[in-house]
Design brief:
The complex is a heterodimer.
Chain A: H1 3-33, H2 52-56, H3 60-66, H4 73-82, H5 90-103, H6 110-124, H7 128-133, H8 136-157, H9 162-188, H10 200-212, H11 216-223, H12 229-238, H13 246-260, H14 266-280, H15 284-290, H16 292-315
Helix pairs in contact in A: 1-4, 1-5, 1-8, 1-9, 1-10, 5-6, 6-8, 9-13, 9-16, 12-15, 13-14, 14-16, 15-16
Chain B: H1 3-27, H2 32-35, H3 41-45, E1 67-74, E2 80-86, H4 93-106, H5 108-113, H6 122-132, E3 143-146, H7 155-165, E4 168-170, E5 175-178, E6 181-186, E7 189-192, E8 195-198, H8 221-226, E9 231-233, H9 239-242, H10 250-258, E10 265-266, E11 270-271, H11 275-283, E12 288-292, E13 301-303, H12 309-321, E14 326-330, E15 336-341, E16 344-353, E17 355-358, E18 362-364, E19 369-372, E20 388-390
Classes of the chains: A mainly alpha, B alpha+beta.
Chain lengths: 326, 399
Amino acid sequence: MLSRSANNLYWMSRHIERAENTARLLDVTYRMSLLPYRVQESDQTWAEPWALPLVINGLASAYYERYPGPISSDNVLRFMVLEPANSSSLYSCIQAARENARTERGAITAEMYEDINTSWLEMRNQDYGRLHGSGVSAFFDWVKLRSHQFRGITFGTMLRDEAYSFIRLGTFVERADNTARLLDVKYHTLLPSAADVGGAVDYYQWSALLRSLSAFDAYRKVYRDLITPTKVTELLVLRQDVPRSLHACMNDIYDILKSLCDDSSIEAERLAGELHAQLHYGRTEQIIELGLHEYLMAFLEKLSKLTAEINHDFLVPVYSQKQVSA
Amino acid sequence: MENHFRRCVPARACQRVRALNAFLKDIYHDQEIIKAGKIPEQQVLGNKLYRPEMRGFNVPGDVYVHVAGIDIVKTDQDKFYVLEDNLRTPSGVSYMLENRKMMMRLFPELFARMPVAPVDHYTDVLLDDLRAVAPAGAPNPTVVVLTPGSYNSAYFEHAFLAQQMGVELVEGQDLLVTNDAVYMRTTRGPKRVDVIYRRVDDDFLDPQAFRADSIVGVPGLFAAYRAGKVTLANAIGTGVADDKSTYIYVPEMIRFYLGEEPIIANVPTYRLDRADDLKYVLDHLSELVVKEVQGSGGYGMLVGPASTTGQIADFRDRILHNPANYIAQPTLALSTCPTYCDAGIAPRHVDLRPYVLSGKTVTLVPGGLTRVALREGSLVVNSSQGGGTKDTWILEAGD
C-alpha cells in the first residue's frame, strides 16, 4: 500500500490511543490531587500533582507560555483537554485521528469512519463549563469508552490486510510509550517524608496508578497481596497477560513487524525483536537494581529508535539508489 | 432521452474530440493548420495555455485528450449546440455514476420497464484506455490517479474513480522521479508507475518545469514524461484547444483534419477583439451572454437578460479594458427538465455533458451528466454556482 496511507492509518490509531492514555493520566492525576498532601518547599512545585501531566508529556514550557503564574487544576485541564494549540490535548488528538480517518476513508470501513466522526463532533461541542459540570472523571470515562469502541469496531469489521496491520501497530506503539510514561509518574511524585513510604499516601498513589492502567483487579488476582512497588513493576513491565503491560505491547508489535518486514526492512524487525527479548527474558530484580526510572527511560529511547526505523522503512520511506534503478 | 438525440450525440461528440485531438497533435508538431491559414498563428502560439515545452514531443498513441467532457445544449426540438469543450481535467463523471446507482435503488421498477443503457462500465473503459496508452515496454502497466489532495473540491471524485478502477490514489508527495522514471512510495518499497490519470492542472504538475511554488506537484515529472517513461492523461497543453476563443475554429478543424462536415453546430460566437463584433456586442449587451475566454466554473461571465443595468455597465468597462479576453454568444433558450424543487415540480434549465474517452479507440459511454440550474429562470448550471445534477438515460432499443 501507499506509504502515506499507511502513515495516516498508523497515526489515526496512535492519536486515538494517545487520547485514551492522556485521559487515563489526567484521571490518575485528578485522583492523586484529592489527597490531603501538598508540597512544602517552593523549589519543588514541579512535583505538584497537576504538574505531572505537563512534565511527563514535556509540555511544561508550552503550558507556562499559555497560562503564566502558578499551576492550577483548572488551567491544566483546560490545556490538556480542550486547547487546540496543544497538539497533545484530547481535543487535538481526536481531531487529528478523525482527519487521518477522513483522508483514508476508502481504506477503513464505513462503521469506523462514522464512529470516529461522532467522537469528533461530540468533542468539538465540549466546553469547560460542561466538562466540570458533569464531572471530569465522567468525561475521561467517555474518552476511554470512545477509544474502546473504535478499537472494537476496527477489530470487528475490518479486512485483515496491510492497512489493518498498520492500524494495530500504531495502537501498540502508542500504548507501550504511554504505559512506560504513566509508570514513571510514581517516580516524579514526592512523598511528604521518608516515613510515608509504605504508608497511606504511598498506597493510594500506587493503587491509583494501577487503576489508571485498568490493572488494579489484575493485581489482586495475580498476587493476592499488599501492593508493593516490585510487584507493580513486574505486573506492568514483564507480565505478558496484562494487556497494557510493556511485554504485552511488545508481543503485538513484534508479531506485526514479523508479518510486515521483508529484506529491505529487516532492521525494524530486529529492533523490535531485541526489545521484545529484553522484556520476555527480563527479571524484576534487574529492573529494581537499575532503578525503575532509568529502566523506563532506556526503554523509551529504544522504542523511539524503533519508531524512527518504522518511519524510515514504511511510512516516510527514504530509498537507496539500488531500490530505484529499474 | 429521445431517439433522435441518441442517434446523433455520440457521433457528434466523438467527431469533435477526434478533430480536437488532431488539432493538438498538429499545433505541437508541423502546425499545418496555421500554414493553411485556417486559424491565426497568434490565436494558437500567443495563447497563454499553449505549452512550447510540448513542441515536437510524440505522446503515446497520439492521444492528447483521454477524457473529454463536451457540454451540449438543446434549444429546440431537434436543435443541439455544443456550448463548450472541456479538455483539461473535466470533472463530474462520478455524479453520472452515483446518480444512476441512486435512481436504480429508488426506482427499480422504471428500469425493469425501460431499456436504459448502462453506464457502470465507464471506469472499466477508462482503465482500459489508460493502460492502452502506457509507454512501450510496460506489458502490465501500473496506473494511478493523481489528486491535489483531500481539500480539493473534487477529491470525492478522485477517490471514487481510483477505487472503482482498483488503482492507487496518489498525491504529489507519494511520487518520486529517479533517472526519469516515476515511482510511488509504498510500504513494500518503490513501485514503478507507468500511467498517471492526473487531476492536477498543468501549472501545478511539476515545480521544476512549471510553477515553482506548486506543492502538489512532482519535481521531475515533466522530464520523465518527455523521456517517454510515463504517460500523463490528459496530456499537457490541451487547454489551448478548449479555450473559449479557440472554440469558434472547431468546425474548421473538423473539415481540415477529418474532411467531414461538422454534424453539430457551434453557438454563433462574437470575438470582441474584432472591431465590428465588439461594437455589436456593446450595443446588445442586455441580450447576450459574455464570457471570459479562459474562464470556467461559471465565473467571470455576464448573462445579459438576467442582469441589472448596473451590472451591465460594470461589465462593459471590463470588456473595454481588455476586449480580447472576452467572447459573446446569443442567450440560448436552453431546454428545461421537470425538476423537484421547493415549489414542487417545476421546469429548470439543463445542459448535458457526455464524456468521451480516447485510448485505442474513441468511445462514449451512453449517458452523461445533466446539469440543472436550480434557481428559477437561471441559465447557469455550474455546480460551483449552485447547480444540481440529474441521472440521464439513453434508451437502447426501438427507434
